[in-house]
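dude i think i finally got it to work??
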Amino acid sequence: MSIIRKACDAYMTKAENLRVSEENVVYIEKKGLKHTTGHRTKIVVDRHHEVEPPDDINDLILEFLNNPIKTRIIFTINSGGQLYPSYSFPVRPRTKVAYFIRNSTPLNLTEDNMLDSLLIGDLLPNPLANLSVLCDEVFFPLLNNTVNQVGWTSVIANDMKTESQEMRNGIAQMKGLVINRTIFPLPICMDEVMKAAPEIATNDIFVVNPLMKHSLEFMVVKWLDSVEDLVNIKAAEKINSKENYPLPEAIFSFWESRLENLESLADQLGDRRIKTIGFVLEKIQSIFEHSYRRIVELVLESLAEARDITKFLAPLKKKMDKFESNDMDDNRQDIRSLMLTVGLVWGHSRYFHTLNNMTLFFNLFHNSLIDCVNRTVEPDSIFQGDVDEAYKKVETNIQHLDYYKYIYRECRKSLKKFKIGTTFNSQDWTWHPEEVFGRLDKFLVRLEELKDLFNTGRDFQKLEKIVMGGLKGRLITTGLEKILEEYNSIYRDWTNVQYNPIDPDAENSHFEKDRLIFKAKTDIMERMVSFQFEKALEDTHELLLAGSLLLRPIIKKHIEPLMHVVVDDFEEEITCVKEDFNNFRNVFIVLGLNELPTDECFPKVSGAVSYLKKLRHRITTLHKEHELYEYPLFDNERGGYVFENYKLVVQEIDDFTKIILDKWSSECWQGIQQDIILTLLEKNDANELRVNFTDRLKVALKDIKVNRLLGCDISHNLTRFFGREDELWLARIKLMRIAEWYNDTFDRAHPTEKGIIAAEMSMIEDQMNPLIKSIKWIAFSKFVLESLESIGRKTARKKT
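look at this
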């Protein structure tokens, strides 16, 4: 329901009390609706329809209708959607405003004088729209009416028309700026041109007077200026004029807005009145007809460009929207696909492939990358959390940006693949890297500086875990703890910075100054740490716990001349091992394997191998400890010499060990083959039974076992023989028990007793006879073991 209808409905609820006829209310409503909607509306008034507005609203309406000195009443709709009347115009209306104004005061409203007594109308909430209507409907007709120009000279009258047209052009231009559109203002004589058009079409050009011709030509020139201003706007200039570091959304918005503006211009050029102006200029053969054609050409060419670019930027915009909504960790996997999309846009768009457009996009995209890293790193709280976490964040984002630059270079090297299926040429990416990577490279430098700052913190935090040994260990550890406390106190100053430490272009940033001050203080602390390390090295000849602190430039420079003591100790141990090894080898060469000084718990071969392994372990353990140093102990000339000597000694020990093992493997296997074919049991001349398992087999099993434990390579044959160890051991145990019981029975039994058990002993001997004569160690079955158990039980029973 319109504002007027609401006002009138509210008024009708109190019609009887107002002493105003219902016909007057309907009259006011009809006139208001006609004025606000532009056409007559049939209104059916329901006498029984009741609207119950608040009393204060009723009072305002009644006061205006009954008080003849009230000048006006204004109706608006408030933010709650309710009708609100007042006696004054709102300062900043947000909706359409309807007004009823008495032509004079005092004046009583009646049905007869309603038409002549009230000025009814409405105002738009847009001041420029109201001003445009006011100029077109009031000022221009008033100032250019010939009746009002009586007594004016022709110069004044023409000047008034010119100034009126200028004012009209200015209002149209202002409206276009507000709505971001270019509007073609029409000349004042437009109505005359439309009336004269049919005559001009019949070649009657004399109806076009000089003033009309001048007005049309002047307006076409204005149009051309407006169109040229629009099409000559460079995207980079406009985008960079609004923000210091705009994002890719700016270039998408620019081309979308440009397309809408050009579509609007194309629609205006299709308007019958503007086409008539072009027709008239052509008929009168005006030189400005070329300007009109130039307008059409510029609009159509620019429209084709905007449509092409907007079309191909659409898929890129979707990817950029997703990219800008995530942090850098999530965006890494999308960098390749996004760059491929950029390449396809460059290769397939007829207009976007220019150097200006591409460099602009990459600059905006790099701004987006920087913003994305800012969101990921969270510069406001980066100094508040753990140093290790902050270091990892910065290092990870540096890796992300380096990965992007790698993908960029990869795409730049393979531009041809983006042109597949196209028939036009595109400008190659021949811009200087500084044009697109200037800010990003500066940002990477800042990240590297932050990485170095946090890495310094990580190194100093390691002082907390260092506990030095030796006589001076407690004193040195206390000194390192004090240095750590001093470092923590100066690091806390970073938590109070009031600027963005990541952005090198941040306003009021003192990062570089603060960083240099911080570095000067940490350099002093590094010298203090290096002094403590020097004392520890002199005391214990060991700095393994120092870790990466030894690589700090100042500490490394100070401690480097002293680190030779670690290498010297290593060289001394190598020399001792070399001397012991040479003595051991000489004994082997001169006196043989059996004279080697080995551990008595081992057979000679495995004892010799064990001794060599111990010699090797003495230097390899030291070397493994040295490998844990982050400091390059062996990267200098002396270190390289010692390391080569170490490798030589290790190689000699390994070669000699291999010689012993190869010789042993061959001899051991031959001995096994000779002894494994013996029978399980044998009897001597004294009729004593014994297990026929030679000492050579026992030693072979023990050697194989020990050498395997020492990690030596054992031949397949020896390994297979050792696989029978449990089986052989079980058989030996049972056979030893049988021999023991059998021999004991014959040694202790009385001749009378022997006669009594002679039959059973004969049966037992018959069962043992295969073990003595035919069954050999090389192959005996599970059945043989069961037989051994049976013989053992019978022999044990006879013994008892």
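The longest helix spans residues 637-675.
im so relieved honestly
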